[in-house]
Amino acid sequence: METEMAYNWTTLWSNIASLFACDPSQPLMFHSGTFWCLFILFLPIYALLKRHSRAMMLAFVVAFSLLIGYKSSGWAILLLLFTTTTDWYLARRVVASTDPVKRKTLVSLSIVTSLLILGFFKYGNFVLLNWHAIVGGNFSPMDILTPLGISFYTFRSISYIVDVYKGKLKPDCTWLEYAFYLSFFPSLAAGPIARGVDFLPQVRANRVATRNEVYSGLWQVLLGVIKKAVLADYLAQYSALVFGLAAGEGVPLLVGAFAFTLQIYCDFAGYSDMAIGLGRIMGYNLGVNFDFPYRSRNVTEFWHRWHITLSTWLRDYVYIPLGGNRKGKTRQYLNLFATMLIGGLWHGAAWTFVVWGAMHGAALCIHKALMPKLKKIPDTPIVKILSGFITFIFVMVTFVVFRAESMHDCMTYLRDIFVNWDSSYFHTIVTQRSLMCVVMLVIVVTHFIPKRAYAWLECRFVAAPWIVKLVVFLAVVQLVLQFASAEVQPFIYNQF
Amino acid sequence: MKRSYIGLIALLVVALVATWAFSRNDEAASMLGLNTATFDKTLFAAATSSEQAQVPQPKGRATGDGKRSVPAPRGKKGATAASTSSVGTGNNEHYVRPANVAMDTTKKNILFIGDSMLEGLKPRLAAYAEANGHKMNAVIWYSSTTEIWGRNGAVKVREYVKKFKPDYIFISLGGNELFVSNIQEKRQQYVDAILREFGNIPYVWIGPPNWKPDTGINKMLSASCRDGSFYLSYTPDQHYDRARDGAHPTRTSAQAWMDRVCTWVVNKSSHPIRLNRPSKTTASCHTEILQPAK
Predict the structure, then answer these.
(1) pLDDT at position A248
(2) How many domains does chain B fold into?
(3) Residues with Cβ < 8 Å from B242, sequence gap 6 or more?
(4) How large is the average pLDDT for residues B23-49?
(5) Quick check: is A458 in a domain?
(6) What pLDDT is recorded for position B137?
(7) Is A231 in the same domain as A364?
(8) Same domain, B153 and B118
(9) Tens digits of per-residue pLDDT, A156-176?
(10) Does residue A495 sit within a domain?
């Protein structure tokens, strides 16, 4: 008996230790049970420290954020502290100096340092691969462990130093406050890209979340969990199959493209919702990141609704510094196109992302050029529906590029949709993949529900008795478990 | 501490305890139609290498986060067949086709059945069929295994053989059973049931394209199939790029895989049929799809 107990305790401790071990293939996601176990331990300590010692609270949250980063990227997460220190120090030097050349040099040094680190970790293999392809050498990729959220915290640090340089923000925050801002775990892995000018004042204010904010945050997290862990992950099984294989039939490929378009929205927006909700629970406002993007009636509106913190970042720190619309039409189009190319490359180190960015850049330019003529078209319901439909189709096609392994795969995929068209597959898909069709229908319908309905539901949840909230929470957990089971995932890895 | 935080912490603790309790008692949960979390297993179960081998890899791509933008399973790209392949003494490994076996040049009515590997193989075989004048039907049963096809005396095989009346069968099955322990004890009866339903119809069983050594499926299939009727897809000279799920060959690789199978059918199988290389890359054929079975 004693031996058995000892064995169980040994196993338990060994398994708990393995949960904290660095494992890049198992990042700590906000919808995982492990994260919520940790969050239950985190929250009371955070709440106590917030009230009694702000500095301790900041240090505690930074340590917790680094732990989450370590789990995914090992000691590489310490680079975050390096970026924190250099940017924080250089920002103070920028303000201390009155020499314009020195100020510019310091800002450039900060930006170049951040971009070099990002470039090495995220694009090092990509650059070398293409270089070797040009010169004809053999290339084996470097085994690089990328720090968690490097793209996000790099953009945050650049916005900070630029805002300090432009005088929009005073660099009067302490190192700890700045480390808190860059490493803030809810937005570390996948955004939103909160600006220092918005976030740092909240850190200084150290305001405790109200009851309404805590439960409104929980509501937002639950919505995010449903989008990410239920809807997106379910559809991912199908899109992974059709994008990965020689599935030459037109209708399944078209449905796969549609499913991926819905999946990627639920994935991105779901994770953003969870981050925003967790931030709100902790008393911080991270802004809005997705605003029902598939309601857009043109590609410009799409970028006002899709990944808003990224698109506004690109506007403020790339497009406007390039000249924006201040240097004539041709230059404006070039700036727009270049900005979207950078935006595409930011998403990942592959030519497909560059092409994806280029397609959106070209579409934005065309839309800008046609704007005077488009404004003359009467705004009838049919025009609204048609423009929305065209925009959605365009976005869907670009997401095929985004998702494909290579441009060759992408072209094959798009070609097969038309070449191997057989309408009878619609019936097969509806009858044989009925749950998937229901999931897609749910996403489409909920996407077009008026915002006031969501606001009403949120109010009802916040005002509901504690027991009702518990039931809703458990229902969402059960929904996630149901959808995560093998029976409803037709294409999981070990079940072809 | 603020009351709202106390309320939220209490809610999370109760939810955790409830979920934990269900994870400790699977039977009660299943009676209520509930699924349980894996807390208990995660914390108290000793990890085994076979379980770890089957952990699904995350599918994430392109969140802008450097970590998740790299598709994890791509490490399996070009997965090679290890020298520790489970195939040892299967009769097909040593089969040498007698010199007097001539090619069957008649037009065939081909039936191609199996698991989701058909998504990749079927369009290419359909192109071969079309180019060589054969007729072809396919049945894809997602997530299927030899057990699922072989249940109740392989009733589904019988049904489709009766329906399509094939005179040549291709079957691709076994990819979902690479890591089943004591496989012969558990699955031999189902493989035998499937083969019984084929009767005298010539067939080719396309073995699964392992990405690592299996626990005996290839060996069992090789030993069970007629001489010259089992194609071993897991040999040191076969390299298949994997799709993002880490298991299925990519479009291009699946086509190359089917090309190898067809070359083998023509040159080495016990019943060669006409399968000249088609000019089209892929083609379509009548296909029936079955739901994943529980």
Answers:
(1) 62
(2) 2
(3) B73, B74, B76, B77, B79, B211, B248, B249, B250, B253
(4) 60
(5) yes
(6) 93
(7) yes
(8) yes
(9) 999 999 999 998 888 888 999
(10) no
- What residues make up the domain containing A272? 211-488
* Residue A216 scores a pLDDT above 50: yes
Choosing from B76, B98, B131, the residue where a domain stops is B76
Identify whether residues A168 and A238 lie together within a single domain: no
Q: Is B236 on the interface with A (CB under 8 A)?
A: no
| Structural domain harbouring B125 | 81-290
What pLDDT, in 10s, does the model give residues B208-261? 987 777 888 899 999 999 989 999 988 777 777 766 556 677 777 888 899 999
Count A/B contacts: CB-CB distance under 8 Å: 255
Residue in chain A lying closest to B120 (CA): A246
Q: Which of 105-144 (B) contact A at CB < 8 A?
A: 115-117, 119-121, 123-124, 142-144
Q: Is A124 an interface residue toward B (CB < 8 Å)? A: no
User: What digits encode the pLDDT tens for the residues B174-220?
Assistant: 988 887 778 888 889 999 999 999 999 999 999 998 777 788 889 99
| A339, two tokens | 């900005």
Indicate if B184 and B279 belong to the same structural domain: yes
Confidence band of B265 (pLDDT split at 50, 70, 90):
very high
The verdict on a CB contact (< 8 Å) between B8 and A214 is yes
With 90 as the cut, is the pLDDT of residue A33 above it? no
Tell me which of A155, A185, A205 is where a domain ends: A205
Q: Do residues A312 and A446 share a domain?
A: yes
CA distance B257 to chain A (A): 11
Q: Which of B2, B284, B290 sits opposite A420 (nearest CB)?
A: B284
Q: How confident is the model at residue B91 (pLDDT cuts 50, 70, 90)?
A: very low
Residue A16 scores a pLDDT above 60: yes
Nearest chain A Cα to B58, which residue? A25
List the alpha helices (DSSP H) in A245-328.
250-281, 299-305, 308-314, 320-322
Which of B16, B66, B178 faces A37 most closely, judged by CB atoms? B16
B188 & B271 share domain: yes
For helices A466-484 and A451-463, give the axis angle rounded to 10 degrees. 120
**Rounded to whole angstroms, how far apart are CA atoms A453 and A461?**
12
| Distance from the B193 Cα atom to the nearest Cα atom in chain A, whole angstroms | 21
Asked whether the predicted pLDDT for residue B161 surpasses 80, the reply is yes
Domain count, chain A: 2
Is the pLDDT confidence value at B40 over 90? no
How many helices (H) and strands (E) would you count in chain A? 24, 0
CA atoms of A415 and A373, how far apart (whole Å): 32
What DSSP letter does each residue of A69-129 carry, written as one string?
A: HHHHHGGGGHHHHHHHHHHHHHHHHHHH---HHHHHHHHHHHHHHHHHHHIIIIIHHHHHH
Which positions 351-370 of A are in contact with B (Cβ < 8 Å)? 353
What is the DSSP code string of B238-279?
Answer: -EE-B-TTSSSBPHHHHHHHHHHHHHHHHHTSSS-B--PPPS
Of A420, A474, A83, the C-alpha closest to B18 is A474
Residues B123 and B243 in one domain: yes
Sequential DSSP letters for A332-348: HHHHHHHHHHHHHHHH-
Inform me whether the pLDDT recorded for A96 exceeds 80: yes
In contact, A252 and B282? CB cutoff 8 Å: no
Answer whether A47 sits within 8 Å of B2, measured CB to CB: yes
Can you give the pLDDT at residue B198? 93
A72 pLDDT more than 90: no
Please identify, among A205, A225, A240, the residue that sits at the C-terminal boundary of a domain. Answer: A205
Look at residue B71 and tell me whether its pLDDT is greater than 60. Answer: no
Going by pLDDT thresholds of 50, 70 and 90, the confidence category of residue A458 is very high
First to last CA, chain B: 49
**Interface check B36 vs A, CB under 8 A:** yes
**A123, A349 contact by CB (below 8 A):** yes
Tell me whether residues B35 and A485 touch, CB distance under 8 A.
Answer: yes
